[in-house]
Amino acid sequence: MTAPRSRRRSAAYAALALGLAGSLALTGCNSHSSKKSKKTSSSSSKSKKRKIIGGGAAAAGAGAGAASRRVTGCWPSTYRVTFSQQTGPKSHVTVKFKNTTSNTCRLYNGPQLRFNNAKAPLPLRTGDPGVLGGPTVDVPAKGYAYAVIPTNTPASKGTEQKSVTIDFMGSSADSTTRGPVTLNFAEKRLHISVGQSKVTNWSRSVHGAEVMAGVGD
Phi, psi at residue 213, to the nearest 5°? Predict the structure, then answer.
């Protein structure tokens, strides 16, 4: 074999070897890229799952928070409900309720008051006891609500009462909330005179209750 032919054959082998090396390198690169793509896709899928799960937990937490903030009905107690008598031309009895709990509670319509063990409660000045869709007052923690009984006529003032039985109306017709309780005026050294009168609905302020009773300015 002549020298020129030997050199050409060597060059051909070298070119073939270079081509094979390039092909193998390209194959390895493609394989690495494919694996990387699969890892990226898998990571993205896991991330989406985590977001969905996290979103569900957040929604459940929000629902639980809303449930814990649900307002429940207020209930009477002799240390929560007090009575006081105002005299003069605009004489009236003020009924004051204090929410002694750490949560807001709800009052419906007005208080149901039976003086001296009367069979029927004192009528409301507006509406009837237990009427659905009546006025409500939300009393914040440590807050107050008021109702007023006007006693500015001889008939409405009547005579001095010995006791009163207290019920709070519930959210449905003719329902009450954890009552009744009885307050003995003699034990509390209170002089409360009520006759043929009516009681207002609950109000957030004593002035508002007095206006509803027709004895406010």
Answer: -85, -10
Distance CA 131, CA 119 (A): 19
Radius of gyration of the chain (CA): 41
Cβ–Cβ contacts within 10 Å for residue 170, how many? 18
Cβ contact 107:74 at 8 Å: yes
Nearest to 133 by CA among 169, 178, 97, 179: 169
pLDDT tens for each residue of 100-147: 999 999 999 999 999 998 999 999 998 665 555 678 999 999 999 999
CA neighbor of 214 nearest in space, from 55, 91, 117:
91
Determine the pLDDT at residue 173.
Answer: 58
Which residues, at least 6 apart from 125, have a Cβ–Cβ distance to it below 8 Å? 110, 198, 199, 200, 201, 212, 213
Backbone φ and ψ for 22, nearest 5 degrees, come out as -65, -40
- Report pTM: 0.67
Tokens of 4: 């020129």
How far is residue 197's CA from residue 156's CA, in Å, rounded to a whole number? 5
The DSSP letter of residue 78 is T
